[in-house]
Amino acid sequence: MTSETNKEVIKRFYQAVDQGDTSVVESLFSPEWENVDPSLPPMQGLDGARTLIRMFTASFPDFTSKIDLMAAEDDRVAVRAWHTGAHQGVFLGIPATGKQVKISATGIFTVKDGKLTQNRVVFDAFGLLQQLGVVPQ
Prior knowledge:
By secondary structure, this protein is an alpha+beta fold. It contains four helices and six strands; from the N terminus they run H-H-E-E-H-E-E-E-E-H.
């Protein structure tokens, strides 16, 4: 697979997350997929991928991602993205606040044979908690 093809996989991933579309899990994710993110619970395999895709739109129904920067080399794609949405459901144990949030995330994704095998992401969890009013500004 080329770097450009791998970038397209990542764009499809973000589109699926924004839409809460789990119908693409088998075509986008390897059964060995794992999510490595210190601020989220462990997720792996196709069921974990479904959980990841659903969790954002369940809590932020208008969840939207905007890719700010993307670079690819070999089987890895690096992304910096901005995520926005209104907090309308429980997220990581935090009840809905109705507040609009905007957070950044940086990820390194591994793609093999056209499928995601690993998401290694760090998002601004502290900034999210501040925007939700859970911790002081």
